[in-house]
Write a structure and sequence with these properties.
Elements (H helix, E strand, L loop, with lengths): L2 H4 L21 H8 L6 E2 L12 H14 L1 H5 L8 H11 L11 E4 L1 H13 L5 E5 L4 H7 L5 E5 L8 H5 L4 E4 L13 H14 L2 E5 L15 H4 L13 E6 L11 E4 L2 H12 L7 H12 L2 H27 L4 E3 L7 E6 L6 H11 L1 E2 L1 E2 L12 E5 L5 H17 L1
Parallel strand pairs: 1-11, 3-4, 3-5, 5-6, 6-7
Antiparallel strand pairs: 2-8, 7-8, 9-10, 10-13, 12-13
Helix pairs in contact: 3-12, 6-7, 6-11, 13-15, 14-15
This protein binds pyridoxal-5'-phosphate.
Length: 407
């Protein structure tokens, strides 16, 4: 828990205490996001894009144009569910022969994180059951913690995984099928189909959180679960159980804070009601920039260079790990995304204890405890390879090896 929140209540008895859930948080995300300000620290902890890929001049020019051309839309309040034109473009972007989407299937959110937060708001009441891929994205755990949920782990690696049993009775099932955060793994097609079938059979909403789907280094992308469930809707509009979430954060720039949810109209209406009490509307400036960036093809044009750069950085990180850490850790080379998940050979190794030593040595990692809903897995760490160039990744791994020798 962060020092600011753990101050004893007795120092200010006249003030009401903070909500109970704050006692169960950690400040690891705050540590990653501020790590850039620590001199010479090599951060391999966050899921941050390479800053040299930001299309600074193009986005600056778009921002100027959209404010001049659409002053009321960009500088005023806008519709809670997002600008109609952007919703329309997103509906078209994800439609296919099997998946019929209209703007009623789309909510624009302030980053992908807001979709997760709103989902907790509309589906989970005290103690409500969430079935989630495990280990899982800690931001999702952060978003749902105030609802005090109960977690059921979806062990997608288990060959005997029973999707119907795993989903039954849950308010929703949470998955990151493409290059999962934190493990970097891909959920295969048979399992995607089994999850969709189980969602249909049980009535449980199936969340497909997909920030990394475009960061596919090798081979063809697998079908989205929402497309696999497209045939569930006899009418002209998708009405199936999959709640698909996306974001421009990894494909273009996280600072725009533009994300989206694609789902059945009833789910979109519920999330819209929740968003009204959250931020009223997403920034009109960045929605218009996002719309122009998608429509002009900038987002699609950015992808090949991004994939080339990230593939080379993945290779550099894996080579450095093989050179310095293979006696202590095992990992799989991910075929996309932003992360390598390294598991200690020694079950007693504790990455929570490694973190402060690593920070002293000048490198930041994400320990496995923050991705475990129960906070107990201490044996692994998530390493990001997209933010730093190859020489810094190699130096980061050398520093990590030095910290491990001190552990
Ligand atoms: C699995 C997953 N979902 C959602 C998000 C949130 O992304 P955004 O920056 O769009 O809020 C992230 C960011 O790292 C993520 O890894």
């Amino acid at each position: 828990m962060s020092a600011r929140l753990s101050r004893p209540a007795s120092q200010s008895p006249e003030r009401p205490g903070f909500a109970r859930w704050l006692g169960t948080t950690n400040d690891v995300t705050q540590t990653f996001l501020s790590a850039g300000g620590v001199p010479d620290l090599i951060s391999m902890a966050g899921g941050l894009p390479a800053p040299e890929l930001y299309r600074v001049e193009e986005i600056a020019a778009l921002a100027q144009t959209v404010i001049r051309d659409h002053p009321a839309e960009t500088l005023g309040y806008g519709p809670v569910e997002g600008l109609p034109d952007l919703r329309e473009v997103l509906a078209r972007r994800f439609s296919s022969a099997d998946l019929r989407l209209t703007r009623d299937n789309v909510l624009v959110t302030s980053g992908g994180m807001q979709g997760l937060d709103l989902l907790g708001k509309v589906l989970v009441e005290d103690g409500g059951l969430i079935a989630g891929q495990s280990p899982t994205y800690m931001g999702a755990l952060d978003a749902w913690r105030p609802r005090n949920p109960t977690f059921r782990k979806l062990d997608l690696e288990d060959p005997a995984f029973d999707a119907v049993g795993a989903l039954a009775g849950a308010r929703f099932a949470y998955t990151v099928p493409n290059f999962s955060n934190p493990t970097g793994r891909l959920v295969g097609l048979p399992l995607r189909q089994a999850l969709v079938d189980a969602a249909r059979a049980t009535g449980t909403w199936l969340v497909e959180d997909d920030p990394y789907g475009q960061l596919h280094f090798d081979g063809a992308p697998l079908p989205r679960m929402i497309a696999l469930s497209g045939g569930d809707s006899p009418g002209p509009v998708y009405d199936g159980p999959v709640v698909y979430m996306g974001t421009l954060s990894k494909e273009l720039a996280p600072g725009l804070r533009i994300g989206w949810v694609v789902a059945a109209p009833a789910m979109i209406a519920a999330l819209t009601a929740a968003k009204q009490g959250s931020d009223m509307c997403t920034s009109g400036v960045t929605q218009r920039v996002a719309l122009a960036a998608i429509e002009s093809g900038m987002v699609d044009r950015a992808q090949p260079a991004m994939v080339r750069l990230y593939r080379a950085r993945r290779d550099a990180l894996c080579a450095a790990l093989a050179e310095h850490l293979s006696d202590r850790f095992v990992w799989e080379e991910p075929v996309g995304g932003m992360f390598v998940w390294a598991v200690a050979r020694d079950p007693a190794l504790d990455t929570d204890r490694l973190l402060p030593l690593a920070m002293q040595a000048g490198v930041c990692i994400a320990p496995s405890s923050v991705f475990d809903p129960a906070g107990q897995d201490r044996r692994a760490m998530r390493l990001n390879f997209t933010l730093n160039p190859p020489d810094r990744l190699a130096e980061g791994v050398r520093r990590l090896a030095a910290a491990l020798r001190r552990l």
